[in-house]
């Protein structure tokens, strides 16, 4: 969904379970309990013994911007490769070209998911990201679906089917969609005020490549036939010409949107990065810590894991059509680690390193720095368990199944590690004189 951070929230509210998305299973009456891990209300961190050197802090903020530029540049480069693969699929729809496009989509997620740590604290990213990564979506707005598919209650666009119709009837309004362009698709996001109406971005493309995942919490992802992209005789699913146009337009828009964000972080330009570097170093550090804590707690532990776990709901997993959720979670956490350690491994294998939050915290509270590093490693290890599980045939949507207590424990352990990690991030911020960080909880209790 398009989710807005709850800035400076001081209370933890009950979880709201979304019903929009991919799976076919309904949540059972008995739902898995979320972990009762140590929360962010831990013992206060040791106070900094000396004021952080402003020049050193500013160098850390500058390197943070360098990493952002590198990550978004990699996401753009990977999207260009996805675009090439989509073009090859449309030029010659075969099982081989379809699988190549799917592989390019999965590869494109690796750098993008590491970029999400920049979303929280940087309005330019948060205001922009919904067009690229909104979820869960009511896929019936885009294309054909199984007749009884689950969608957001009261959503008038849930079965609009843009691909099958040149005009949409939404309540009293008629919307011309005869020409499928990126601009037109972007205008349909949150149609009729419903956040589940998502027409663009990674997940719209994912649905077009994989189709619905009708397996619930059983094994298997979506299985869209390549014949859905054949022109003329042999077309399945109807309206193959419009499906082809939709996939092409959505992919082109993704590339364009990512290029926009690359430019916002480019050095030496009149852009968001320039305004960030003009702010006080303390403000820059606060944004870094807030981004790390909010992605760790409210978004990843809460929206992307706790919701799905408690509802036993594949509808609420992140990359639900492709069953790539394990990788998305893993690389989200990798992005948090990147920012704290001031390092990033680019998609070409080169490594970017420089002044880091870790070095600043080490200078004022080495024991806190050690704890943060340990917690980051623990979180990565717990999420690696989910990756290895998927690689061995048991994906995230199977782990959260109502009868899979062992799988649920794996997810619960990862959530607990993220919650613990967030508390350590707050202590690290306090060690540098940044109090009342209040990472976004997304209204979840932990």
UniProtKB/TrEMBL annotation:
It is found in: Cell envelope. Residues 30-53 are annotated as: Disordered. The keyword Signal applies. Pfam families: Peptidase_M75. Residues 68-424 form the Imelysin-like domain. Residues 30-49 have a biased composition (Low complexity). Gene3D superfamilies: M75 peptidase, HXXE motif. GO terms for cellular component: cell envelope. Residues 1-20 form the signal peptide. Keywords: Signal. The keyword Signal applies. InterPro entries: Imelysin-like (IPR018976), Imelysin_sf (IPR038352). This is Peptidase.
